[in-house]
User: Fold glutaminase from Oncorhynchus kisutch.
Amino acid sequence: MYLPPSGLFTGLLEPLLLTGLWTSDPRLRDCMRHLRQAMRESAGTVMVDQKLFRKCVGANILLLTQAFRRKFIIPDFEVFASNMDQLYYSTQRQEGGHVADYIPQLAKFSPNLWGVSLCTVDGQRHSAGDTKVPFCLQSCVKPLEYAIAVHEIGTEHVHRYVGKEPSGLKFNQLSLNDEDKPHNPMVNAGAIVISSLLKPNSNKAERFDYVMEYLKKMAGTEYVGFSNATFQSEKETGDRNFAIGYYLKEKKCFPENADMIAALDFYFQLCSIEVTCESGCVMAATLANGGICPITGERVLSAEAVRNTLSLMHSCGMYDFSGQFAFHVGLPAKSGVSGAVLLVVPNIMGIMCWSPPLDRVGNSVRGIHFCQELVSLFNFHNYDNLRHFARKLDPRRLSLDDRNKSVVNLMFAAYSGDVSALRRFALSAVDMEEKDYDSRTGLHVASAEGAPTYFSGIKLFSHIACTSPYCSGL
Ligand code: GLU
Assistant:
């Protein structure tokens, strides 16, 4: 088959992109390398013969088969992506809120910036808006820091120092629970204590590199940066956090020998780590996928660390709106003062929303609106009934239309003796036992039409019996 570069796109890459896979997916590295090489070597026209085809898909055959057989968690990704675009545009109209201005590095952002990226547990990706602009994680780093701590030192050890209960107070309150521990890891006091638990015997640089390594793995090696200017500003304006630090020290909240100032410094550094919507959604997807990064397949966090993290995000992740968010949206999420909302739809996908204007309690106005709209359209709320509640869409299922279309196509191929179409259906996991309105299978139709060329087509059905009342003993 001769394909000009544009044909290569329409013939191979476009169908691939429609499944939600991106050509930058690390799992497709070999496939893309071979394709690029073939393009370079042929001046203009690429001949995709059997040899080149095998070479390109060979290393990725499992992934590509899964993609084209629509075996990913969102089988009809094209429709899903267009629904997400609609949510994106309707949310864009939400105005109001104020961009945080306590440091110039946050105040500089335009209130019009708005981006959403998602990555499913199978690594299907979609983005809309300003999804390549770096911003600081700020408080969105708290669940990630906590997950790393539990993964490294265990639940029991971490919770010797931090509680698990929502505080009902502002995130930067000088307040401890009845046992004189910070209320939970999602408030500043909790995150500051946890930063003293990570790599206690290493120097500052090692500790920073160590967390960055984890974050890069969660992001599938996509963009994770650091804003030194934000870090310096956070330190200079961090009187409240210093006050929390001294209070924690007075109440003996840190492990013995811990250096409170070093813990604070580390906390400011963590808040200043940068991502984009695109890389941030892969981090969220790693949490959605039980700790395994969907696009690299690497286990980054233990299942226990992820479960703990999602539980605490669910109850404490959205500042003083956490209870209402759990009620209305019913999904684990964490927001930050930069306007980021890291949202996890467990076992389905991770989402990163980003838009700087914040509401009264500090959540991104567009971020919150988008999350609410998302669960009004799809049955993603933790307590949505998946069996009897038909009003919402379930993107995990192929629509009835798609299933009907596949029966009709199957019957027509059988009727007209189109053996290569039948073979294609069999290879792409179409259910060859599918029946029409008269309970006739493709086998029945193919046999009833009786041309000799159907013989090899009939072989594709040879393992099934036709139960149609119109069938006379096949
Ligand atoms: N750096 C901020 C602080 O510690 C984080 C604020 C936030 O995102 O909640 O106060």
In short: The longest strand covers residues 115-120. The chain has 21 helices and ten strands. Residues 80-377 form a domain with the Beta-lactamase fold (CATH 3.40.710.10).
